[in-house]
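Researcher: Let's continue the batch. This sequence belongs to TP53 regulated inhibitor of apoptosis 1, and it's 83 residues. Same format as the previous ones, please.
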Amino acid sequence: MNSLGKDCNELKRQYDACFNMWFTERFLKGDSDESMCAPIFKIYQECVKKAMQEQHIELREIEADYNAGDRDNPDTKPDHTKS
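Model: Same format as before. Here are the structure tokens for TP53 regulated inhibitor of apoptosis 1:
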């Protein structure tokens, strides 16, 4: 799957590769320190934020759409314990 912004696709590929390596080589072996991919994630996150601004997408709009979907489905309850 491509990133939200075309300019972010390579960063997403790099982050996905890092995450997959961390997950299989470290997390599944008991090491939950996720700092290994933090630098590339930060760069990728900034790229996505910029793409959202360029496309006039606000996170509040996405959250509102998501939460509206929850209200339409009585079997789905939002998990407010996540930050």
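Researcher: Any comment?
Model: The two ends are 25 Å apart (CA to CA).
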